[in-house]
């Protein structure tokens, strides 16, 4: 049964439910009204029969007729008149001997009928009402004694209402109630259908099971999003916050019902409501943390009924862009190394074609010796594979630019702690080595050296070059995003390398020292093996 109900439409359920409730209420009310009418009609008939019998018995003309012994036609006329006025089915008057003086059937007049139900009125002079079938079918009768002035019983007056006629009257009234009930049921059915159709329209034609499924899917979808999602109604009050939004602001208590402007201040929400257009990539700072916010209106019948705000941590986006930039640079370094070896292979091929075998052996020996020295310094002293990969790539890039890239033979580095990720290493070492290589490219004896030390609580990297050095005041500005000492082309974006290095060092709680003179620059980077809570410093010393 329940399985079948699941496949019944909402419109049918609502219409059927309302119709059932209306029918049930109508049946209850109709039963109550019918019962009340039956009780009232019978009660009225009992009262009316007694009152009419008493009135007839007290009439002077009735008394005089019985005292004189004249049962004239005037008594029959009188009782017929009372019957019409009180809608009585019959009024029967008997004298003290039981002779019938008035009766609806003229043939019965003059007959002597022994007192049965009227016995107490004849003997004791009592007034009473009862149900009787003594005269005409089963009837409700009122019985009253006709008394003389001296108090003697002259006769008995019996006024009756036949029950069959009473039930006919009741049926007529119940028929009216039933017709009224049918009209109410029809009206209820129409209203139920209209209500169900309206609800279906408001729910966009979805059934409750479909809405429940969509609600669960929405909750799962919102919970799976890494972006924060906050929805507000047409009044700008928050009605939905997903888990990611709460995690983005652990220090801020979010709650449903608050104005969205208090949770995400500084945005022009009214513009979204007025123009019915979204606002994308709005930068917002909350607790000194940058976010990218998109606002999209919720439209229903071309009316704005709310808005949805999506939030992304700008720091994560920036870090991802930096990482992609460094991966690309790393790829370029490997491509440069491949290009360098390709040039050497072409040189060797040319010498072989010319038959200069001794020169070929000399070039090969030089290359093997150089590679052995580089590989020995990298693989024997540097155990961290990520740093090894970076250094191999930078060696090829330096070689292509005719820069002597030297790795200090006294360097030593164990595998780095897990909190120092490759993306951070690529940003720090990649930018510093690239800057050093570019600085000395124009020098005839261009030289860049790298050293690593893994002692104590810090990991130390040192990058030195024999360039022209940094002038006073350039160090502080070098860490600003967009600042560069090199010339920019229209398509080139420079000045973000050291700014990215600074961000990565802040993330790792590291520090950096810069020593610069006209003979070159040495940059020393300190990375703690255990994070220390955001300690970052940059020192500049002129040599």
Descriptive report:
A hairpin with a 2-residue loop joins strand 14 and strand 15. Helix 11 packs across helix 13. 50% of the residues lie in helices and 21% in strands. The longest helix is centred in the N-terminal third of the chain and has 49 residues. The protein has 3 domains: 157 residues, Beta-Lactamase, CATH 3.30.450.20; 85 residues, PAS domain (Beta-Lactamase); 187 residues, Histidine kinase-like ATPase, C-terminal domain (Heat Shock Protein 90). The strands form 3 sheets. It has a 6-stranded mixed β-sheet with strand order 11-12-13-15-14-16. It is rod-shaped and about 175 Å long. The chain contains 16 helices and 16 strands. 24% of the residues are buried. The two termini are 91 Å apart. It is of the alpha+beta class and 543 residues long. Pfam families: HATPase_c, sCache_3_2, SPOB_a. InterPro entries: HATPase_C_sf (IPR036890), HATPase_dom (IPR003594), His_kinase_dom (IPR005467), PAS (IPR000014), PAS-like_dom_sf (IPR035965), sCache_3 (IPR033463), Sensor-like_sf (IPR029151), Sig_transdc_His_kin-like_C (IPR004358). Its EC number is 2.7.13.3. GO terms for molecular function: ATP binding. It is a multi-pass membrane protein.
């Amino acid at each position: 049964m329940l399985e079948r109900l699941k496949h019944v439409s909402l419109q049918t359920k609502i219409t059927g439910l309302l119709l059932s409730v209306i029918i049930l209420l109508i049946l209850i009310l109709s039963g109550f009204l019918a019962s009340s009418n039956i009780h009232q009609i019978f009660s009225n008939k009992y009262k009316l029969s007694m009152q009419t019998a008493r009135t007839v018995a007290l009439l002077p003309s009735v008394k005089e007729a019985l005292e004189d012994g004249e049962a004239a036609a005037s008594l029959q006329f009188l009782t017929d008149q009372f019957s019409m006025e009180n809608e009585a089915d019959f009024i029967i008057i008997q004298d003290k001997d039981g002779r019938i003086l008035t009766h609806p059937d003229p043939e019965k007049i003059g007959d002597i009928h022994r007192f049965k139900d009227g016995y107490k009125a004849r003997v004791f002079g009592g007034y009473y009402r009862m149900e009787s079938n003594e005269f005409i079918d089963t009837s409700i009768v009122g019985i009253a004694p006709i008394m003389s002035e001296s108090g003697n019983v002259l006769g008995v007056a019996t006024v009756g209402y036949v029950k069959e006629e009473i039930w006919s009257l009741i049926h007529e009234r119940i028929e009216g109630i039933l017709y009224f009930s049918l009209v109410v049921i029809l009206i209820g059915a129409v209203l139920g259908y209209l209500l169900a159709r309206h609800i279906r329209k408001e729910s966009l034609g979805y059934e409750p099971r479909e809405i429940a499924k969509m609600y669960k899917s929405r909750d799962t979808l919102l919970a799976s999003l890494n972006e924060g999602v906050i929805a507000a109604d047409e009044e700008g009050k928050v009605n939905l916050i997903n888990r990611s939004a709460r995690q983005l602001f652990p220090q801020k208590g979010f709650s449903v019902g608050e104005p969205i402007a208090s949770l995400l201040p500084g945005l022009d929400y009214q513009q979204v409501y007025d123009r019915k257009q979204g606002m994308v990539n709005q930068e917002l700072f909350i607790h000194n943390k940058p976010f990218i916010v998109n606002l999209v209106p919720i439209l229903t019948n071309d009316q704005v009924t709310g808005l949805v705000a999506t939030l992304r941590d700008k720091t994560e986006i920036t870090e991802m862009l930096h990482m992609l930039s460094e991966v690309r640079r790393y790829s370029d370094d490997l491509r440069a190394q491949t290009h360098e070896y390709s040039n050497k292979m072409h040189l060797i091929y040319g010498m072989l074609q010319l038959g200069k075998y001794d020169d070929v052996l000399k070039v090969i020996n030089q290359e093997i010796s150089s590679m052995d020295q580089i590989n020995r310094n990298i693989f024997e002293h540097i155990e961290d594979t990520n740093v090894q990969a970076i250094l191999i790539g930078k060696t090829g890039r330096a070689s292509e630019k005719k820069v002597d890239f030297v790795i200090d033979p006294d360097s030593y580095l164990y595998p780095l702690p897990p909190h120092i990720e490759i993306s951070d290493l690529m940003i720090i070492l990649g930018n510093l080595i690239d800057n050093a290589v570019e600085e000395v490219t124009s020098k005839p004896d261009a030289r860049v050296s790298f050293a690593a030390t893994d002692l104590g609580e810090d990991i130390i990297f040192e990058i030195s070059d024999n360039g022209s050095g940094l002038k006073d005041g350039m160090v502080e500005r070098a860490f600003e995003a967009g600042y560069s000492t090199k010339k920019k082309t229209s398509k080139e974006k420079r000045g973000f390398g050291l700014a990215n290095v600074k961000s990565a060092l802040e993330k790792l709680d590291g520090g950096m020292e810069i020593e610069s003179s006209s003979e070159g620059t040495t940059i020393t980077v300190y990375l703690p093996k255990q994070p220390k809570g955001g300690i970052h410093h940059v020192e500049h010393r002129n040599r």
